[in-house]
Design a protein that fits this description.
By secondary structure, the protein is α/β, with parallel strands linked by helices. It is built from 13 helices and 13 strands.
Length: 375
């Protein structure tokens, strides 16, 4: 019992330290949008990792349908969304504070919030219509999916040579002419919730994951903490290929004329869920539920697909193409165990930064720093 109490006190202290950091991120990120009447009594607060740029159309459609509601949208990193929720619960457990709905692409962290008692249940015709993989315990829900893909600069890599599988990517990394040396990027799994989730799923599904990581390290891979930053570098021609990016953001760049191409790995393409929870402490959980039901409604799903580039939940399984959604549930919690996470991160760093201690090691560039892109 003493050990349990001590552990809880340590967690509370850590959460208290995390909250100011998370709040600072909210203030400096600059990602926000306010819609609706300035003096309305009905205020819906949404915190999400979705970029305002790609989610704006969805928010504006909801606002048109509900003109009496003031919608306050704040863009935060997946890590900050999680840290804030935990910290609020420890600092003011009885208070109705914070957002009314939290939407995150780090579906493992969302699942952990549910598992640890930080979310409340919601049952409606819309939630009941979801497939089993998209609804866990009536507390965390997929609102849309986003394939995790490879993206390359078409000016720097010929389409005939672009890898179509992870095995082909490994072969390209091992090619004698080293076409990707110093020109490849992947998520920083320490700084990105999406990156950690994608990398751990690769380890679970692919027996070659270790060899691929080692080859990335030998080719001087750089790391990024957001898809947007990686796409910036790809557009400028600073890198040739990025491994594990979100399709929706890439589609927006391609539609604007960026010289980019998407590869859906033919061995398997992970389909990440943008998942939503209604926090236990939501001041207006009724409005959070209203917004969630809108997102899951036929109109909301159409807007999600048209405006944000995500795929509707009903169209997220493409078996013939090897595209499959990751299901919400306890299976996502395995690599959040502290010992497993430390072991994975140690192996990842050893593989991907083999020359870190030696002269001439390439810098691990691409992180956003304070106020940078977050998804």
């Amino acid at each position: 019992m003493r050990k349990t109490l001590a552990a809880l006190r340590r967690l509370a202290a850590a959460a208290a330290l995390l909250l100011p950091i998370a709040l600072q991120a909210a203030e400096t990120s600059g990602g926000g949008l306010t819609l609706g009447p300035a003096d309305g009594n009905n205020v819906l607060v949404v915190h999400a990792s979705n970029s305002v740029q790609v989610f704006r159309g969805v928010l504006e459609d909801f606002s048109r349908l509900n003109p009496a509601i003031r919608l306050e949208y704040t863009e935060l990193s997946t890590q900050d969304l999680y840290a804030q929720t935990v910290a609020r619960a420890w600092q003011s457990p009885a208070a109705r504070i914070g957002p009314d709905i939290v939407i995150s692409s780090a579906m493992d962290l969302q699942t952990k919030l549910v598992n640890d008692g930080y979310a409340q249940a919601h049952v409606s015709p819309e939630t009941r219509a979801l497939p089993g993989w998209a609804n866990w315990r009536d507390e965390v829900f997929s609102i849309g999916t986003d394939p995790i893909v490879m993206v390359y600069n078409t000016d720097r890599l010929d389409a005939a040579r672009a890898p179509r599988t992870r095995r082909e990517l490994l072969s390209l990394l091992q090619a004698p002419d080293q076409p990707l040396a110093g020109g490849i990027s992947t998520y920083d799994v320490e700084g990105s919730g999406i990156g950690y989730l994608a990398a751990t799923q690769d380890t679970r599904l692919d027996s070659m994951a270790g060899a691929l990581l080692a080859a990335l390290g030998r080719n001087g891979v750089t790391v990024h903490e957001s898809t947007e930053l990686a796409l910036d570098r790809l557009e400028r021609g600073e890198i040739t290929l990025a491994y594990n990016l979100l399709e929706s953001y890439t589609r927006h760049r391609i539609d604007r004329g960026a010289p980019l191409a998407i590869v859906y790995p033919q061995d398997y393409t992970l389909m990440l869920s943008r998942s939503a929870i209604i926090p236990k402490q939501a001041p207006r959980a009724d409005l959070g539920r209203l917004f969630l039901d809108y997102l899951l409604s036929p109109r909301g799903q159409e807007m999600v697909a048209q405006q944000s580039g995500m795929r509707p939940v009903s169209a997220s399984v493409i078996a013939a193409a090897g595209v499959r959604p990751m299901g919400l549930g306890v299976g996502l919690l395995v690599y959040l165990d502290p010992l497993k996470k430390k072991h994975f991160l140690d192996l990842w760093k050893a593989a991907i930064q083999p020359a870190a201690a030696g002269p001439g090691a390439p810098p691990a560039a691409g992180g956003p720093g304070p106020g940078g892109p977050i998804d």
